[in-house]
Write a structure and sequence with these properties.
Layout (H helix, E strand, L loop, with lengths): L2 H14 L3 H12 L3 H13 L5 E3 L1 H11 L12 E4 L7 H14 L8 E4 L7 H5 L9 H6 L9 E5 L2 E5 L5 H4 L2 E2 L8 H14 L4 E2 L5
Parallel strand pairs: 2-3, 6-7
Antiparallel strand pairs: 1-2, 1-4, 4-5
Length: about 210
Amino acid sequence: MPAHHARGNAVSKDLSRLMVREQLAQFGRLVLLNSNNAEILRRAADLDLPGWYLTAGCLFQTVWNVLSGREPAAGIRDYDLFYFDDTDLSRDAEDLAIQRAAEVFAGIGVGVEVRNEARVHLWYEQKFGVPCAPHRSSEAAIDSFAATTCCYGIRLVGERLEVYAPHGFGDLFAFVLRPNPVLAPRGVYENKAKRWSAEWPELTVLPWPA
C-alpha cells in the first residue's frame, strides 16, 4: 500500500472515533479544503433557491481525497446542487433556475448540475428502471442515494454552515461504502462502487443485501 494511503487510513480511523459534534466540525473543515466547494457554497447562497444543498460526490469524495493524501478536488466529477420547489413542476421553471445558476457559477472552473428534487419522480423510472415516489424535500432526495456513505448535504446560511448527514460520519471517515437499498437499484450501487474503488482503493465496499 502506498505510504500516503497508509497514513490516510490511520487518520481516518482516528476521525471515525471522535464524538459526533467533533466529526461534524471535521467534515465541514475537510469539505471546504476543496476550493470548488467553498466557492460554490458562497455563490449558491446568492441564488436563494428553496431548500438548496450542495451534495453528493463533491463532499464525500473531497473527504476521501484529503484523508488519503490527494489533492482535495482530484477525481471528482460531480458538483450537484439540489433545491426543492413543488410550486411549479414544469421543466421550464427548472430550466430558469439552471440558467440563473449558470450565470452565477460562470468562470468557476467546474460544472455545477442544478436540479429541482420535486421533479425527480417525473423522470426517474425512465432513467433507472424503477419508480420513484415524489420527494417531499431535498433531504428526502438525499436520503435516497444508492449508498449511505453518499448521503450528505451542506449549505451556507449567512456565515454558518448547515450540514445534513442522516447516517453520520463513521463510515465516511473509515472509507466504508455501505449500500442504501431504498430507491436506486443494485446495479447503480455496484457501478458506482466499482468506479470509486478504482479511484480510492482504500474503500471497503459492503455488498448489496440479499
